[in-house]
């Protein structure tokens, strides 16, 4: 008996980082509902992340409009279908006006609760917080091939860097990225003779310029402003190490399972730390609350990251590189076979010479008579 389609309307976040952090929910749904068909609503910026989802019926880039008119336009596009489930990660009221068997809508956390990581917050929407799905993006064979072609010309481990961010306040100085890259990729560094992969959008080319100059052109893979987000994700799957500010690219790197070092200052790693066993968050001597006092709205046009020393980042990068190194395989010794070989091997005759024993004269004992048989019987 054929199983009917199960249509899912998934409204994802509009920002790259949030869209990546909640992407594991789509992966979980696709695993648990094999006959699911997806309609994904995203922002024009995040829509490319979801183009390779299997069983994708429609991808809708939703441009925000004044007076929330974009929601009315979306309603008109999706109202004519009966949905198996509507998942709304933006917490809108749209699902109330749609024909759906089930609705899963993100709700704001109650005030006074401890900060909750965005992956765990997303898991609550589907009530799977006991087994939160890790960020995951689907890539097609074509996307993987495009990434592979960009890396085919060179050799050596890849250090990926994203030296920009969407706000100058949380952008570590580009010149310091350059110093770290030179130390890691230079002679004596853990990635000596490796390659540098630069990532960013079209507006990030100035930040990348300082880093671009520290490596010979033959060892540079400059994708800043040249690839879409999903291709960047496929490239990051092949990176040996990633270093970047708290940004969408940082979350892409962690989702790609690249060893990821995220640099934090005026953003809260309790909510936005890169997710995964190979991911680390590093901040300078000031906690997030200190930045909130200095910049309550977190919008000042000033860099808050100067107090994160270059040496701290280099040290953390070296440690992460070592911690994520592939274990060296040691060829196992077949003890039983070795014993058999020793037993069945050719016998070797060993000639042992008899030791020469020198004659020893008995000492003469004064005052002691020789107990001869004659005297004993007398």
Characterization of this structure:
Mean pLDDT is 89; it is low at 345-378. The chain is 32% helix and 14% strand. The strands form 2 sheets. Strands 8-7-6-9-10-11 form a 6-stranded parallel β-sheet, sandwiched between helices. The chain has a 5-stranded parallel β-sheet with strand order 3-2-1-4-5, with helices on one face. The chain contains 14 helices and 11 strands. It is α/β, with parallel strands linked by helices and 378 residues long. It has 2 domains: 6-125, 3-Layer(aba) Sandwich (Rossmann fold), CATH 3.40.50; 142-323, Glycogen Phosphorylase B (Rossmann fold, 3-Layer(aba) Sandwich). Helix 9 links the parallel strand 9 (241-245) and strand 10.
Task: Compose a concise summary of this entry.
This protein has 14 helices and eleven strands.
Q: SSE layout and pairings?
A:
Blueprint: E1 6-11, H1 16-21, H2 24-32, E2 36-42, E3 56-61, H3 69-78, E4 85-88, E5 103-105, H4 118-125, H5 141-151, E6 158-162, H6 174-185, E7 195-198, H7 205-212, E8 220-222, H8 229-236, E9 241-245, H9 248-255, E10 260-264, H10 269-272, E11 279-283, H11 288-294, H12 310-323, H13 335-344, H14 373-377
Parallel strand pairs: 1-2, 1-4, 2-3, 4-5, 6-7, 6-9, 7-8, 9-10, 10-11
Helix pairs in contact: 5-8, 6-7, 6-12, 8-9
């Amino acid at each position: 008996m054929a199983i009917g389609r199960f249509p899912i309307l998934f409204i994802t976040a509009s920002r790259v980082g949030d869209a990546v952090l909640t992407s594991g929910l789509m992966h979980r749904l696709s695993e648990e509902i094999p006959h699911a068909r997806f309609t994904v609503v995203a922002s024009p910026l995040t829509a490319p992340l979801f183009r390779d989802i299997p069983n994708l019926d429609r991808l809708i880039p939703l441009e925000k409009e004044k007076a929330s008119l974009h929601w009315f336009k979306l309603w008109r596009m999706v109202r004519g279908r009966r949905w198996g489930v509507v998942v709304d990660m933006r917490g809108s009221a749209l699902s109330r006006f749609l024909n759906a068997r089930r609705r899963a809508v993100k709700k704001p956390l109650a005030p006074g609760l401890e900060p909750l990581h965005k992956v765990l917050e997303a898991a609550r929407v589907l009530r799977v917080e006991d087994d939160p799905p890790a960020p995951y993006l689907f890539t097609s064979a074509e996307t993987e091939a495009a990434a592979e072609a960009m890396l085919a010309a060179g050799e050596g481990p890849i250090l990926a860097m994203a030296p920009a961010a969407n706000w100058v306040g949380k952008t570590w100085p580009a010149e310091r990225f350059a110093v770290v890259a030179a130390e890691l990729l230079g002679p004596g560094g853990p990635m000596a003779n490796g390659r540098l992969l630069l990532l960013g959008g079209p507006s990030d080319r100035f930040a990348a310029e300082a880093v671009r100059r520290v490596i010979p052109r033959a060892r540079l893979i400059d994708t800043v402003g040249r690839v879409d987000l999903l291709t960047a994700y496929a490239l990051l799957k092949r990176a040996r190490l990633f270093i970047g500010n708290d940004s969408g690219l940082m979350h892409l790197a962690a989702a790609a399972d690249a060893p990821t070092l995220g640099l934090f200052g005026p953003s809260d790693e309790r909510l936005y730390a890169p997710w995964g066993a190979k991911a680390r968050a590093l901040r300078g001597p000031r906690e997030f609350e200190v930045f909130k006092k200095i910049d309550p709205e977190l919008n000042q046009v000033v860099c808050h990251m100067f107090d994160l020393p270059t040496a701290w980042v280099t040290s953390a990068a070296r440690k992460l590189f070592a911690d994520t190194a592939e274990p060296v395989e040691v060829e196992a010794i077949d003890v039983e076979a070795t014993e058999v070989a020793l037993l069945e091997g050719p016998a070797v005759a060993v000639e042992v010479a008899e030791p020469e024993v020198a004659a020893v004269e008995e000492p003469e004992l004064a005052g002691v008579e020789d107990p001869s048989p004659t005297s004993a019987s007398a």
